Amino acid sequence: MPTLIGVLGGVLICVVLWDAFETIVLPRRVTRRIRLTRLVVANGWTAWSALLRRIKARRQRETYLSVFGPLVVIVLLMIWAAGLIAGFGMLQWGIGSRLATPEDGVGFGTDLYFSGTTFFTLGLGDVAPRSGAARGLVVAESGLGFGFLAMVISYLPVLYQSFSRRETRISMLDEWAGSPPSAGELVRRLGRSCALLGPFLQEWEQWSAELLETHISYPVLAYYRSQHDNQSWLAALTTLLDTCALAIACLGEVPVRTAELTFAMARHAIVDLCQVLNVPPRRPPADRLPPEEMAHLQALLRQAGVPLRADPAGARRLGDLRAMYEPYVAALAQRLVLDLPAWTAPPGARDNWQRTPWR
Question: pTM here?
Fold first, then answer.
């Protein structure tokens, strides 16, 4: 029996170390469905979001939902540390608990206590190893604990730097496309200056590529919510896709090739993120751009002086482009409890920069 416990302890250590390596160190998507991190994050989010969906007040619900991302990172670190401590405790018990203690008798609780003090390099000295194998495990665990803490210290800054870069660009979208953002409002504000659309799309093509790279490497970032309740990375990416589709299908005097390249990068990001988060595409619950909304959008753009193509096939082309990404953004919105942006801004909407808590 002690030998079996020792073997299980070794397996537990290997599982935890490999899971931490894939989550923190390995810079690529892990396709294996059964993973400790995926089980913790996916099941934790399912329970957390199901509980908070019952809250009717949107701002209060968003406040609690925003806690999940940072909290699950801390929980993961605690689970990894607890798994390593338990694994080494099982190994010590498996070799016969060769420990010297002030009290008579050594049990599994003593092995866990000694493993914990060794892992965190406390060095209390009240329990000491009495055999070569036990001393070897102490050296291995203390070195592993030191390395684990160093890895955690390096992991958190990288995670939050990626989050900060993502949110900087989302905040800048406020003055371009409103709050919440919309493709119609973005193009309307440009008006006759559609030449500015090309540089804008090039910058957001770069943002989409960075989003893809960081969120594949660190999928937990998808659960980090933006600073403002009416902004999100999914709304920004959807607005970008809407804008590219509108430019390709309906707008005149715009850099169509730039819009096509940005559309390709943004769609690549949204499809891969659905794969990473294990969210299959689904049909949107309602048409985001029904005929009456499309007519309203065209009227707003004409009023702003935006050149539109006189092409009867434009609406069909726009529908084909929307079908390439809307099932994916709809599935992610349902999964992450995020709102998708409308195609036009609601009447009287004000940007975040125009608001103040004192007026």
Answer: 0.89
Q: For residues 229 and 240, what is the distance between their CA atoms, to the nearest angstrom?
A: 19
Average pLDDT, the chain: 88
Which residue has 């103040």 as its token pair?
Answer: 356
The full DSSP string for 182-244 is -HHHHHHHHTT-GGGHHHHHHHHHHHHHHHHHHHHH-GGGGGPPPSSTT--HHHHHHHHHHHH
**3 state SS of 64:** helix
Q: Are residues 96 and 162 in the same domain?
A: no
Spatial neighbors of 269 by CB under 8 A, at least 6 apart, are 208, 209, 211, 212, 215, 237
CATH number at residue 118: 1.10.287.70
Q: Using an 8 Å Cβ cutoff, are 230 and 174 in contact?
A: no
For residue 128, list its beta bridge partners.
100
Can you tell me the distance from the alpha carbon of 186 to that of 245, in angstroms, rounded to the nearest whole number? 13
Contact 222, 277 (CB under 8 A): yes
Domain that holds residue 110: 2-153
Same domain, 108 and 182: no
Q: In the predicted model, is pLDDT for residue 268 greater than 90? A: yes
- For the chain, the domain total comes to 2
pLDDT band (50, 70, 90) for residue 211: very high
CA 59 to chain centre: 20
